[in-house]
Amino acid sequence: MLHREHWPLAIPWKQLSFEHRQESTISEKPIALDAYEALAEAYAARVDTKPHNAYYERPATLSLLPEVAGKRVLAAGCGPGVYAEWLADHGAEVVALDVSPKMVHLAKQRLGAKARVVQADLAQPLHFADGSFDLVLSALALDYVRDWDQVFREFHRVLRRPGHLVFSVGHPLADYLLYPEANYFDTELVHYTWKGFGTPVRMPFYRRPLGAVINPLLQAGFVLERFLEPLPTEQFRQQDPERYEKLCREPGFLNIRAVKPAHLPPPRPT
Ligand SMILES: C[S@@+](CC[C@H](N)C(=O)[O-])C[C@H]1O[C@@H](n2cnc3c(N)ncnc32)[C@H](O)[C@@H]1O
């Protein structure tokens, strides 16, 4: 039976809580909206230098990008605009979107005329024309969207041929290890208390198995080009040797590059 979940409260990292899977839950309000509204300023203040972002996730994601100069790029789940700024500074025409009004405000402040920033929910159809982007970049935002069939279909739709999708998400193994009582094969809503941005914030997200990352991508028509399980950089080690050692043994993020090929694939034999 369908039921509505209660909108999550922004509650004052790492204390874990597990919630049973919510196979048939309808959530109209984006699950992480309140949490990101609560930590937007703190996130914006730290994201340029915080080791997990600056010396782990970002170098890996940037290493997957195709040439961006002269390309039209969608930064999906842009947060305060670090990637959007990098893209604009490297010659791209950037449209950035985020569901959090505070993040949109902060991104506008940071970007000025460098990019267009809009508020939008990645769980909903995108208000962009078919084939209007050369690249979609989505860093650490898809963990908050349950239905990846829809979001990858939408990314595929708005991309030209050829067009690239580069994204990073929590590594399925890392997310599973947080909830050892869970069933690895489920996609489920869980919560994690973030303590790395000042006041702790209880952050909802979806954990899912590796197959639920890759299959919706392929079904949407993308071809997988690169699959990166990154290692933290030397700068990370200098800033946080303890977590560096852990991330050298256990993955934290997964970074993927996929392409909407230049030509339609041949029809499958019947
Ligand atoms: C971890 S932050 C990453 C921000 C940015 N990509 C970066 O790497 O700095 C996740 C972002 O995803 C946004 N987000 C969460 N759910 C979303 C949704 N349903 N639609 C669009 N953005 C969403 C949040 O507001 C937040 O800004």
Describe what you observe in this structure.
- With 270 residues, this protein is α/β, with parallel strands linked by helices.
- It has a domain at 30-170 and 222-260: Rossmann fold.
- It has 9 helices and 12 strands.
- The chain has helices spanning 33-46, 51-63, 82-89, 101-111, 148-158, 172-178, 211-219, 234-239, 241-247, and strands at residues 3-4, 16-17, 25-26, 72-76, 93-98, 115-119, 133-139, 159-170, 188-194, 201-207, 223-228, 253-260.
- The protein has a 7-stranded mixed beta sheet, with helices on both faces. A 3-stranded antiparallel beta sheet has the order 2-9-10.
- The chain binds S-adenosylmethionine (SAM).
Order of helices and strands: EEEHHEHEHEEHEHEEHEHHE
Q: What's the overall average pLDDT, rounded?
A: 90
Radius of gyration: 18 Å
CATH architecture annotation of the domain at 30-170 and 222-260: 3-Layer(aba) Sandwich
Please identify the top-level CATH class of the domain at 30-170 and 222-260: Alpha Beta
